[in-house]
Design brief:
The protein is α/β, with parallel strands linked by helices and 384 residues long. 28% of the residues lie in helices and 26% in strands. The protein contains eleven helices and 21 strands. The longest helix has 23 residues, at 177-199. The protein starts with 7 loop residues before the first strand and ends with a strand.
Amino acid sequence: MLESYSRSWTEIDYDAIEHNVREIQRLVGKTKIMGIVKANAYGHGDVECTKALKKAGVDFFGVSSVDEALNLRYAGIKDPILILGYTPEEHFHYLIEENLIQSLVSLEYAYKLDAYANTQKTKIRCHCKVDTGMCRTGIIYQEQEKNMDAILEEYRLSHLSVEGIFSHFPVSDDLQEDSVSFTKKQIELFQEVCSQLVQAGIQPGIKHIQNSYGILNYGDLGMDYCRPGLLYMGVTSDDSIPIASDPDFIPILSWYANVSLVKWIQKGQTVSYGRHFCAQKPTKVATISVGYADGLHRLVSNQGLCVLIHGKRCPIIGNVCMDQCMVDVTAVDEVKEGDVAVLIGRQEDQEVRVDEISRIAKTINNETLSNIASRVPRLRKRGS
């Protein structure tokens, strides 16, 4: 029986990352891997995941913000780090001091960055972001509007060292004809931009466009890097979505909580806020020390989501509370205070996957995992 560490905790098999990296590499051939460790590596621990990725041969990392980049630098990570999101002007100095690479969210932003670098008599490392269809950040280069002059202008700014170029897929997870055509057009547009840079006498630098589903569904596109996030953690965004490959990933995270109380309630008694569960017969109820403040979506309340206790599936009944939830353990013998409930992971011959939580909560695994709260310890799996 697994011993408890806290009221609720996760265990993470960081050693399994190496296996998952090999599976990614098998799909993309010679394309190298940029490990995306933003949002605390989707809730898995950015520093530990980065170290595990480095051990697996990954030599480039992507984060969302300068704060996340600094967290890695202060932990001793010296490898290239690309900030995928926006860095405010008051933090530009960190880009120089910590040798970080900033994505250019717009030409106007590039001008500001160039002007600051000029005052510091240096060059700031950057990657050019091209918007081929996401309509989020970057210079628009789509069929309706091709701003090639703006892309050339970014490369020619004298105090920026534009070392790479990238774009992003919004529908690489969808194998329907319209979405596949859209993604292939994005690839074509991106390659067109790179070709025009070369024709203008400019080397594009490091090229990268594939997110996790871009890797799963489009294989080796001949780019320099790809950008997996959840994949090296052994999961996809949605288990129900068909993919064009057959990888063998190992999920690295398991989530546990303690049973804090076991009691019988009688027919007609109700459970939790709102009284949405009413016992139709005598029911044995276990209170579990995990709730929505720990990251268990309140939307899963009373919807049939199960946890594992003594290797048996036990449904959550009533509304999930901030720090606790209740489950029906009528069919479980000898359940008692201190027993371990599994929210994500295996117990005996049963498994609960993160996807079960996400489907009921009508979201994706990215959000479910990222939402596991900071108060839930991330512990290295024993033996890993």
